[in-house]
Amino acid sequence: MHALVFHGPGEKAWESVPDPSIVDATDAVVRIDSSTICGTDLHIMKGDTPEVKAGRILGHEAVGTVVEVGAAVTTVAVGDRVLVSCVSSCGRCRFCKEGHYGICSGGGGWIFGYMIDGLQAEFARVPFADTSLYKVPAALSDEQVLFLADILPTAYEVGVLNGRVEPGDTVAIVGAGPIGLAAIMTAKLHTPGRIVAIDLADARLEKALEFGADAVINNGEEDAVAKMMALTGGLGADVAIEAVGVPETFELCTELIRPGGRVANVGVHGRCATLHLERLWIRDVTITTGIVDTRTTPMLLKLIEGGRFDPTVFATHHFPLTATVAAYDVFAAAAETHALKVVLHAVPAGIEHKDHRDAPLAAPVHA
Ligand SMILES: NC(=O)c1ccc[n+]([C@@H]2O[C@H](COP(=O)([O-])OP(=O)(O)OC[C@H]3O[C@@H](n4cnc5c(N)ncnc54)[C@H](O)[C@@H]3O)[C@@H](O)[C@H]2O)c1
Ligand SMILES: [Zn+2]
Ligand SMILES: [Zn+2]
After folding, report:
1. What is the structure's pLDDT at 364?
2. Which of 36, 290, 326, 345 sits 20 to 30 Å CA-CA off 316?
3. How far is CA 62 from CA 37, 150, 279, in A?
4. Residue 336 backbone phi and psi in degrees, to 5
């Protein structure tokens, strides 16, 4: 098969690799029908995660079809269409039993495209298939469910739920990339009073308004703290969600919140940020961090099935899987290309699928 292989910082190639096969009885092998690229893949490409070794197949978000199952797999069968999530669950460890699959200590957690070969590939081995795969309802297209693999549950769990967004709250969302926009989309499930998006890029702030932000602040041009204080009668936001992953934006979040407020960090940080305890100790603040557990994925799937929200708005660009390298370039140059999520479509010989019929496959298309 072919796959996107990481060859060290800045180096990658779409190349021929051995086909994956069943290793453990709890594995499945999935043919990847649709995949996508994450901001975290760009962190890996920059060398921010040295634990990812050269030779690793990248990618941790996909929709596919089961082509083989191990002897112990009972809940999915060959031919099932499944969502392959960024987080796997062993189903047996203490953390999985508590629903904290993201910190699974039994070999799960975030492993695809990180600890084991990932999903920007024609096929993938999926460990713990029974407890990690989600069957896709027949009525839903790949594109309707693909973003459940990461950005939607991440923004909802690590941002909105950890930040305990309540009806009426003023929610500041710092960073209006795919994660920040998904935080806007899912924060609305809790009926906040006001959502304020903060970013350096006007194009991203325009997107934030389209996604339902009530106000936006370009913190490169304006004093974000002063503007937030002006918006909230001098108090600050009830919740600030950090969706960038640099020290400045984490520190900004701690300044944006009111006494008793909450900061929910979502960003992946590669550098040390300062925690100003000399100012915060008296302010009763709560700061949370986390990796997504994906425990809300079944609930979010129901909302999509019920037409409550439409994640296809994230899909700005389409490529055939074979053009994954070109797709990385478009995704990495988001400031110029205005890419949010790029969808990588497989076109397996002889298989017709509604996504494939709809998708322009010859050349990248800006939707
Ligand atoms: N915790 C988790 O489980 C988890 C899962 C997935 C992704 N992430 C992380 O979430 C973060 C956001 O992901 P994304 O895909 O949306 O990233 P992205 O890079 O596409 O978007 C980040 C946004 O932040 C803006 N930005 C950059 N510097 C800024 C600054 N100083 N002030 C204000 N805005 C600024 C950019 O203009 C961009 O719009 C990344 O760090 C990613 O690795 C975390
Ligand atoms: Zn990701
Ligand atoms: Zn576990």
Report:
1. 41
2. 290
3. 10, 9, 43
4. -90, -40
Q: What is the DSSP letter of 18?
A: P
Q: Give 243 Cα–ligand 1 centroid separation in angstroms.
A: 5
Give the pLDDT mean for 33-37: 98
Per-residue pLDDT at 357 exceeds 60: no
In the numeric block, which tokens belong to residue 258? 């009111």
Whole-angstrom distance, CA of residue 246 vs CA of residue 181: 18
Q: Is the pLDDT of residue 41 over 90?
A: yes
Mutational pocket test of ligand 1: of 110, 179, 252, the residue with most ligand atoms within 8 Å of the beta carbon: 179
What b/e sequence results for 4-36 when a residue is b if at least 16 CB atoms lie within 10 Å of its CB, and e otherwise? bbbeeeeebebeebeebebeeebbbbbbbbbbb
Which residue out of 198, 216, 244 has the highest number of ligand 1 atoms within 8 Å of its CB and is therefore the one to mutate?
244
Q: What is the token pair recorded at 114?
A: 């990180």
Atom 11 of ligand 1: nearest residue by CA position: 267
Least confident segment among 28-32, 145-149, 356-360: 356-360
Please check whether residue 321 is in contact with residue 297, taking contact to mean a CB–CB distance below 8 angstroms. no
In this prediction, residue 270 has a pLDDT band, given cuts at 50, 70 and 90, of: confident
The pocket around ligand 1, CB under 6 angstroms, is made up of 38-40, 43, 150, 154, 158, 174-180, 198-201, 204, 219, 243-246, 248-249, 266-268, 290-292, 334
**Ligand 1 atom closest to the CA of 151, numbered from 1:** 6
Strands 341-345 vs 315-320: parallel, antiparallel or unpaired: parallel
Q: Who's near 64: CB < 8 A, 6+ residues apart?
A: 30, 31, 32, 33, 34, 81, 82, 84, 119, 124
Mean of the pLDDT values across residues 224-245?
Answer: 98
- Per-residue pLDDT of 244-266, as tens digits, reads 999 999 999 999 999 999 999 99
Ligand 3 centroid vs 131 CA: distance in angstroms? 9
C-alpha 46 to ligand 1 mean position (Å): 14
In angstroms, what is the span from residue 69 Cα to ligand 3's centroid? 20
Nearest CA among 195, 232, 201, 239 for reference residue 214 = 195
